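Second opinion, please. Pick holes in both lines of this record:
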Amino acid sequence: MDESAIPRHVPRAYQNEIFQHAIRRNVIAVMGTGTGKTMIACMLIGYMHSRPYNPKIQKKISAFVVPTVPLVHQQADTVEKFTGLAVKSFCGEMGVEFWDRTKWLDELDIDNTHVIVLTPQIFLNILSHAYVDISLFDLLIIDECHHARKGNPIAVAFREFYHAMKPGKPRPKVLGLTASPIWSPNNPQKSLHELQMTLASTVVAVKANQDELEKHAPRPKEHIVFYRPDLIPKTTELFAALEALPHDWVVRDLLWSKIRTRAQVAMVDLGPLGMDLYLVKQLQEPIKTLVREAKLGFSLSLDIDWNLVKQLYRLLAHINVELDSSVSAAFVSPKLRQLVQVLSTHHHASDEANEESDFQAIIFVTQRHIAFGLAELLQKLEGVCKWIQVRSLIGHGSTGGIAGGQSLNEQKRLVKDFKDGKFNVLISTSVGEEGLDFPACALVIRYDVNHTMIGYMQSRGRARQKESKYVIMMDEYDPEQLEKYRVSKDRPLPQERNMLKRRLCQKYVNFEGVMAEEYRTTQGKAPKFDEHETGIDPIDQALRQTYRVPSTGALLTFERAVSLINETCSLLPTSDGIPAPAPVVEVDEISQARYRGRIILPASTALPMDKLTVEAQPRRRKTEAKRAAAFEACRVLHHYGLLNNYLLPHREHEGEEAVDIDGYLVGEDLPVEFEVDREPVWGSIWKSPERVYLTRISIDGRISTGLISGSPLPKALKFPMWTGKATEENQRSAECLSSIPLDYTAEQAHDIFFPYTERAYKEVIAHGRVIENKALLLVAPLQQSGDLDWEVLERVFDPIPDHSGRLDTFVNGPYGRPCGIDRRRPDITLASLARDVLMGQAEVDISSLDDSMTYRDYLCKKYGRNLPDLLDGLGDEVPMIEVLHLSKRRNNLISVKDAIKTTNVYGRTRGPISEILPESWLTTSFFDTSSFDHLQLIPSIIRFVTDAERIYPYAKKLGLADVKAEILREAVTPPQAVAGLDYQRLETLGDRVLQLCTTVHVYYKFPHKDEGKLHVLRRNSVCNRYLRRRAEEAGLAAMVCSERLTVAKWNWPNTGMDTRTTINRKWLQDSTEGGWLKAFTAGQALGLPFGGTDPWTERYSLSVPYDLSETSDVAEVLQQKLRYRFKNPLLLLEAITHPSLASQEVPSYNRLEFLGDAVLDMIVVERMYQKYPHADPSELTLRKQAIVSNATLGWLSVVDLGLAVHIQHNSQQAIPRLILQAMDMFKDIGAEALLNEHWEYHPAKFLADVVESIIGAIFVDVGHDYEATKNIVIPLFEKVLIASDTCRIDCPITELMAWAGSKYKCQKIRFEQESERSKKPASYEYRITIHGKTLSTRLGPQRYSVKCNLSVDAMQILREDEKMLHFCNCDVENLEEDGVTRRKPKAKSGCLDNKSPSSKMHTSNTSDVAMVFDYNARAGEVSGMNAVGLASPSDEEILNRIGQIEGQAAPIETSTRRITKQQSFYVEAIGDNIVIDDDDDDEDDDAVIMPQYFLPNETIVISDDDN
């Protein structure tokens, strides 16, 4: 850092005096508030870091420990400013309690950090949890060090770590800073001795420069102001009404016993108005909120007496808490009136002394609600309300209501505003006594009585201006208040008042003076540390043990043990707002002054039942007995892994440091994309040029073609192929027979077979294109016997003959494209009128033809530009032939129905198009019909064989060699390959298999871990990063079949093809999930934590340590309802035991619920997968979510199966009320309505948990037999499953997005969370926005429910009067979208009525309809699908819904062209667009392109186009 930028502050002589002491030894610097103690600390820090050090030795840093969070940031800024060193600050608001050692070391950045500023508890934590060693520090600065006593974190840190350092090991230098090291003047010598001993330091004060110190730290004048508490009423009408309610009533977090005490304090300090103000502020809003939540149907979180709530609501709901602009002093207490008098007097004096008043005052109180009440009342009281501006300052902690805490930012803002003069009176609790950097005030008032010498000196130190005053307010008739100032035990008489004032102030002054002299004369060494002088009973101290973790050095202390127990229990799973079970602490007095402590941990703690109760040896004091029991309990928790080796509550790691169930690191993620090396095609002849192999191909039992390759197929391959949609007549049975060797080298084979291969590629497959570079594979003609057809090979160089007139052959038409002969057309000549010939043909718009145009002219116009000589020399009477242009080449590995599901053109087929051509234009194909048919399939066959051979080695390695090749290929084909069938459906199923396998393994491997920890371990074992890493290590990247098969653009495999392929990491993860066809074997090979390859029925025995002859009435009734009798009835009892009743005899259902959840998901997804073979993954997921939702399972528990009433719990009101609420919620709700709107219902979660836990219990009871479990569970879900098969399951969010996208092209709808309430039950508030404009806001207990309701609201609003246009103009903005062609072909008019009897038409029947998308009811819904047996629309409906084919792309309703049923259209999906085309040519000049989601109120019919 540039030295010129560092502010230079010259220390005063008295600061330098203390600094010189600090250099030589450990010291405690005693100096008044505002005298610049921080400056001395900065000087010492600078000195320590200016000394040379050996870089080979560990670098040292300095620690500045401050007592409060505001001071952390304040002192960090000061140190950095004064020293120019690198400073870091740490406090609780940064979430440091969740940091592990790695995170701490990263944040500390020891190599680049010089000073850290932190609070005492954090300092103790980083030492006790062994994140750092105390030897790391070269300097410890303890601000406000007078707190270092007894159990204070600084005192513990010095006792356990500083004084425990080995002799001879360099210890950190210590500098303590305080205004008064004495807590109480009762025994000052003892207090001083203990503080010096604890900090290993000597108290020093300014001696040589005392005059200069007093000059810069003037002492305020102290005054005592007495008030007379005469005639203060005991109560108010509201207080009396609340007191008349049931004794010590409780509503949620509102405890009347505490509220009563605070209200009575408010009466004394503020008066009747203050009491009522506090009561209303504390109670009104929570009661209103409770009633409001009940009306919204929230699950109630605690046992609440609703009669009491009603009474409180009637008392409080209509009270107005707003005060008038001017309140009479008659309504406040005498104490407050006296305060007003003091403030007015000093304000008037300030006005007289200055033209512009600079009056500022600080008022110290002890309780937060008094601070708020004073601030409220002072601004409204007569006499001061016109000139006073008041704010209140309190600490961070929150106790709810009016006594809630303030954030650090609020505190800093208040202090800054006070400095800037934005208000003139600050009311503060003890948080303002020390630490915060207040400006020097002329008036400080102690409104409440001091309890400690420290409080007196710290608050007084805020009055640092010259002629400032420190005012103490005191009850004139309360001698105890005077006794606290050590004056007199007798009640003072009024005539003694002035004398008492002088004596009181003089007493403090004398005491302070005596002690100051003591500090100045103390020059000896610090007392030697003696653990028996730490304020703990010597016998108890002798019984204390040390527990240190050898592997980390973490140390367990007695003081930390209690909080560790509470932290661990707070992490136990809970739901529905029912509090987490707390540990029970018992202390028994076994004899006089001997106490035995006992900790009873909750039954849901992941410990053996006999370890839940922990006792310790007797102690002399109750507090120590409690700590000793907690200490022993912590040792037990660490032994069983509930505390980690750093002695923190165990949280399973996530991210890169996470481990799976078996303890292996999840590791770093793969890059998003990476390249792999693999052969582009199977069997290159150049890879092993010495020998080639012939693989014969059989299509429907007929052999006519074979493949010449460089490697043999290890086994025959059978697989289906398709020439149309998924019907029996369009299915072809393909088989690649076992390869046989040929006695040719690669060069010889290339010379023999390449001419035939090239001709086949050019004339049949590629329609004119040639093979580039050397071919990797060759094709050979075969006889039916499988022998090579040498006759065909010899004729391969023959010229192409003209058409012979045969109707059963293939011919080549213009441009060399293959055609089929349909029939001769003697009725047509070249002289015929073009309109008559072309009438009725969908691909031609006859309206554009001249009436006199002949057919010769038409053909010349169509082909003459590129083929000008075709018509030369042809007479008008030349024979005419009607030909059918063959369908475009397609991926024959998938059916048309599967191809329609893809969102692209690849794999689609256009139907045959007829055309009438002169016979002389046609040349007979070299290939006969059978060969031609087989050769068209070659690209798809080569792709299948390549994929199968790529997969086979890895399938064998994974134990999947006997699985069908087509299923394996589907499992490793990503959607990006656009192959129609991909891994998405298998991935949906495999995901549940993966979840179930890991769930069973983790359930039994960790029999004592709770549901939360099991969930994290399972999540680590199935997370995307983990699966990708395992797949990459197993080589699955080379298996992924990601290449697109675009047959129309397919190139014959050649030596110029790239062997490097880019793989997306998501394909690996999904392929891993998609491949669970033999789960245990594959999982073992991939290293997944499945627990082995043995079946569960053999792996886990049904060990029952109970008497199975015992049962209960509840068990008997439940078994009848479940229609299953348990071998072990206690499993059923565990499955219905709520955590509130869990005991050492019967645990709660949490673990069984975790197991049952995975079993149920697997059963449901498997059923959906098998029942709906053509449903896409989103449909499967949507239905699964509805069936296993919290609402559906709650309905089963309450209504259908009646399980809820049998839940065993220990809740007097909450759980029964939640069950009744669910009964009322599901009243008259059937299964269909529930599934369709399951997001509308949110019963208590424990109702669903019980259903899942019972399924888990059944799974265990049947010996982990999945099939047996499924046969028991499916009948229990019979009504739900039947309903799911027949009803429509919607998602309002998806519907809204689809509707907005289809009609308005809008993708700018967002859900934004407004707030997430921390109180229980949790609630979520979201707003829905369109282009940033808010449309609606909703509040609810579940995120998904809130979003769904918002979507419904939005649809209702936006549909009305086209209100969407007020929010969105995307439809206009997107007319020219980047990257999307939106052409508008010229408008064409006319009518095609199929009048020509000679025209060959292609009828599209309704039976050919594959899928109808109807947006009339709900956008995006599939309303008809023949494949699943749903009703198809009528012919008339289909024809009416098909819009304009040529002309404007949108809107479809503007069409003036009528389309008849007998026309064929070619519908393709390319990207996000739909293309509708009339003809089969490669040009899109006459195609209509529109968004795929289309328009509302329209239907797109996609029909089979192969007929």
